[in-house]
Amino acid sequence: MTTRPIPRPLLAVVLAGAMTVGLASATATAGVRADAPVDGASGIGDPYWPLDGNGGIDVSSYAVDNRYSLEDRRLSGRTRVELTALTELRSFSLDFLLRVSKVTVDGAKADVARTGGGHELRITPKRPLAAGTEHTVVVSYADRPGRHSYAGEDNWLASRREVVTMNEPHMAPWWFPANDHPLDKAVVDVKVRVPNGREVISNGELKGRKVGRTSTSWHWRADEPMVPYLAFFAAGDFTIAKGRHRGLPWLVAVSKGLSDAEHDASMRLMKKTPEVVAGLEEDLGDYPFSVVGGITTSLDPGFALENQTRPTYPSVGAGYTSLVVHELAHQWFGDDIAVQHWRDIWLNEGFATFMEWRWTENHGGRSAAATLRDYYTDVDGSSDFWKLTIGDPGAERVFDGAVYGRGAMTLQALRNRVGDEAFWRVLRTWISEQRGGNGSSAEFEEVAARVSGQDLTGFFDAWLRTPSRPAETADNGLA
C-alpha cells in the first residue's frame, strides 16, 4: 500500500502453532482430553488484530460467485471454501461481516452464530471435523457491505457507477468469507455478475464471460495462492488494454468515470506496467506470478494498493512512475512473500519504497545512497519519525510514514554496510528462500547475517528497534 503520492521528506505448522496457543486455555478450562473436539480459536494469533484469521483451519481455495447491484450497492452470492481441519474441531470460524442466509459443510446444513462483535462467523457442522480431513464449506449471503465496519475501518468504496474492493490490512470480509490473515494463502476464483454493459476486473486471468438477458457474469482466476486482502474486484465502466511483454501477459484498465484528460494520462501510466516489471526483474529476478496488470479507479481511495497481479490506483496522472514501481515491487515483497505477522510490515513497505529509490538511481536520478543521506540530515533528530520502532510499530501506526521511509533507509544503510554485491545476494536469497510463503523480520535479519558473513545484531537493533536516530557510524551504514 502507499498513500497518494506527495513529495517525500511453513504454513500449516505456523497455523497449527497459532491455533494451539489460542485453544490451550479453552481446552484446559473445559477439562476435556487433548484429542477431544474443540472450538477453533477466533483468531490466528496476531497481536495487532486478535480476531484476524482463525484457529484450526487451513484454507486451500475460495470460489466466490457474487452478484452486485451498482444502483443500490447491494451484494449477494455464495462462496465455496475448501479447507483442511488442523485438529479435531467441534466448530470453527470465518471472518465475514455480511448477513448470512445459509451455511453448509460437506453439503449438510450447519449451525451459524455471530461472535467477535459481528466479525466472526462461528460455524458448527453436524459432526466434528477430524484432524487432517478436507471439507467444503458453502456460505450464502446478501447485504449492503457499506453498512459494515471492523477495527475502525469503513472499507466499502462505491458509487452508483463504480465499486472497487481495495484496502489493507482488511478487505475480504466485506465481500467473501475468509481466513483473513497473511498466514493463510489460498487460490481465489472470482465470478461477479453485473448489469450488461459494465465491466468487472479482478486478479489473475479473465477465464470467460456469460452474457444473460440483463446481466453478465465475469469470471477471473489467479493461479497462485494469495493473502485474502490482496483479492479484489472492481465493477463499472472501464477501458481495457492488454498485451504481452517478454512473454508475460499484461492487462490494465482505466475507469471511464474520469475526465478525458485524466483517463488518457492514467492509461499512459498503466501501460508502463510491463516495462517496470522488466526493470525490477533485473534486480530481483523473475516476476513471481503468471500475469500482471493494473487498474485506475475514478473513486478516491487516497492510496494505491498492491492487489496480487493487478494493483489498484487512484487517478494521479501519467508522471507517477514511482507509484507503479512501489506497487509492483510489492508483488515480490508483500504478495509473493507475505508478512508472518503485521508487526513485520516494514518488510513490505520499506522494501517497496527502497525499490522506488533504486528505480530512480537506475534511471538517471539521485542515488539511493544520496536519498538515505537526505533523509538522515533533513529529518530533525527530535522528530516523531525517529521515535517509531518500525520493527514493531503497533497497530495504530502500522502504515506510518516512518515504516516506509525508515524501512527504505534500513535497506540502503545495509547496502552501505555490507557492500553492493553482498546486499543484492541478500535480497535474492531472501526471495528464493521465502518464495510463495511468509517472512518475519527475524528471518530476514538471519538471512542478511548469513549471506553477508557479518554480525548485524547492532545494526538491526539501531534501525528497527531503537526509538531514536541511529548514530552516524560505519556500523550503522552511515559513514
From TrEMBL:
Residues 321-463 form the Peptidase M1 membrane alanine aminopeptidase domain. Keywords: Aminopeptidase, Hydrolase, Metal-binding, Metalloprotease, Protease, Signal, Zinc. Residues 1-30 form the signal peptide. Residues 62-230 form the Aminopeptidase N-like N-terminal domain. Its EC number is 3.4.11.2. InterPro entries: Aminopeptidase_N-like_N, Aminopeptidase_N-like_N_sf, Peptidase_M1, Peptidase_M1_aminopeptidases, Peptidase_M1_dom, Peptidase_M4/M1_CTD_sf. Gene3D superfamilies: Neutral Protease Domain 2, tricorn interacting facor f3 domain. The keyword Mitochondrion does not apply. It comes from the Bacteria. Belongs to the peptidase M1 family. This is Aminopeptidase N. It comes from Nocardioides renjunii.
